[in-house]
Amino acid sequence: MLVKKQTSLFFLFLLLAGLSGYAQIKGTLWDTKPIYKVPAYKILSKDSVQALVYDGLPYKGHRNKVFAYYCSPGTLSGKSSEDRNLPAVVLVHGGGGTAFKQWAILWAKKGYAAIAMDLRGNDGNRKHIDGGFEEPDNLTPYFTITNNREEQWMYQAVADVILAHNLIRSFKEVDSSRTALTGISWGGIISNILAGVDNRYKAVVPVYGCGFLFENSAMRKELDKLSPGDRSTWIRQYDPSQYVGKASMPVLFINGTNDGNFFLDSYAKTYDKVKNKNLSIKIGLKHNHAYGWGNQEIYTFINSYLNGTPGLARLAAPEITGTGIKAGFTSALPVQKAFLNYTRDTTSILMNRKWESTAVAVRNNEIVVPALPEDLSIWYLSLTDARGMQVSGELQWPEKKRGSAEGEQIYAGRYKAVFNAAPRHTPSSKTPDSPLAGNGDIGLSLGGTPDKLRFYIGKNDFWRAYPVYPGGGIALPGYLEMNIKELEGGKYYAEELLDSALIKAKFSTSKLDLSLNTWVSATANTIVAELNANQATTIALKLKATEGNTSVSHHGKTGDVIWVTRSFENSPLLEWPAHIAMALKVTGGTLEQNGTLRLSAGEKTRISITIYTIKTVKIGKKELYRKQQQWTKALYNN
């Protein structure tokens, strides 16, 4: 019995050891049964480089077919039987690329087993293969979000790389405990993702590619073309920023200072998420596959973790002292030279900045800089060892001086707030957790759930005059309530766009998609909500004044204008009456007498609310109506 129990425990240990490499994959998008298996494959040709096709994940009713090249020292020499205990590398091409035979050969010549796959459904000659991923008009649909995840290119591409890793690890000549991953450009994006998803790699090297593509990159404009819901889904599912922070292996990030696709601010935010990292930032590094894999630092870095050879030097964070700047470093080989690299340029387009480099001193395993030049906008230190391997310290952005040229170059359009769930603390006496809009006098916060939206309205000069807390202070005028039964339990997505002062939202269920754009006029105290639904629907509108705290409210409908008022009369301690009126009008839709708004499919409908305050006497209906017509006439005629 004891022997049997020990044997069972031994096999359980082996099973857990085998599954441990997949721990990060579990719970991700790619947690599906086929991803944990060695894919079936067929060798198409055998020469110095083998061409093969392997099975990917399910795709359009069949298994996605993936072409790849496999190369090893033995396939190159014609003596495959002599391949034993090889380290292995997985090679991921970039946009417009394919399975590059020469890339696999480069690694085989260095003693590696290498697999380079095509992620676009093509063979090595860029011709579509039977069962391969389908690219419309030969354009890779990087950002496509479909109802069926299996038809999304990013989902399949990441899976293809995981399965290529499974395959090469299964080859008898490969040491499955010594594998690495490197990808170029879009392959760098995928490598960043997989650094946090597949922890079986001993080292990962993304070249050019980074995360935070939605903030600052050449890809942002394509992301911004998506609907708000699809954009949010893509970022959540595929932006490397969601994954790279989970990387457990060492990662080397390589990029150029002026890369036209991956900009330094997003690049820095990406590497900041990784604890065990090396950097190699190069002035003038060009962007293509050959320049990418031509960085010898890639091989040196991977070799050090897979074959135990001397690794790259590593720079510590710079320290500013009274006599300048110093930064310690560790290096297995003598350091040949060190540099201060910097730009004084303040153009907001990072790829267009001009960079300079100045040699600096190395003393006692420290880089020493007597003083920084004036007016630097970005700088970093670098060193080169006796082998010519170049590494960098982290990018440094000096604190911007108030009123400086660089401070004036900051573009608010780069920033926005994203809300993936309905607010839970709106309204609030402190800080609301909802999208906001305003013009300096009136403010708006979007609260509620998709089926019960609430537009809470504030105005700077509407107060209750009472000197004792909590009876006095600024008061909430009221809110617009929009009830939409078809959106009960629906998905919530909203963006607060800072440069356009716009709230852009989308709410959806299987029955209805409703888009909402909301803003506050800059020149009149009018709020506009623009609605567009994919099918005809009805909305119950209710414009309400906030009740309580001794206020008096009235409401009514004059013609096609719905109005409400809220008033604070003189308090016992202060003679300061305050009155506010809100008037609502609809254009482009049908508003019934009972407040039901009927939307037609695909047609824009606008709801405008004009706010007016007075502090002397109560406002009458006629005055309210006159002001509302006066302030909204120009808006309606546009």
Number of strands: 35
Count of alpha/pi helices: 12
Question: Strands across the major sheet, in which order?
Answer: 1-2-3-5-4-6-7-8-9
Please estimate the helix content: 10-25%
Largest sheet: 9 strands, mixed
User: Strand-residue fraction?
Assistant: 25-35%
Indicate the mean pLDDT. Answer: 88
The end-to-end span amounts to 87 Å
Cα Rg: 31 Å
Principal-axis shape: globular
Given helix and strand content, the structural type is alpha+beta
Contiguous runs where pLDDT drops below 50 for at least 5 residues: 1-20, 400-411, 631-638
Briefly characterize the structure.
The protein has twelve helices and 35 strands. The N and C termini lie far apart (87 Å).
Q: If you had to describe this structure to a student in words, what would you say it looks like?
A:
The chain is α+β, with helices and mostly antiparallel strands. It has twelve helices and 35 strands. The strands form five sheets. Strands 1-2-3-5-4-6-7-8-9 form a nine-stranded mixed sheet, with helices on both faces. A nine-stranded antiparallel sheet has the order 18-25-26-27-28-35-32-31-30, covered by helices on one side. Strands 10, 11, 12, 13, 14, 15, 16 and 17 form an eight-stranded antiparallel sheet that branches. The longest helix is centred in the first third of the chain and has 19 residues, at 2-20. Residues 1-20, 400-411 and 631-638 have low confidence and may be disordered.
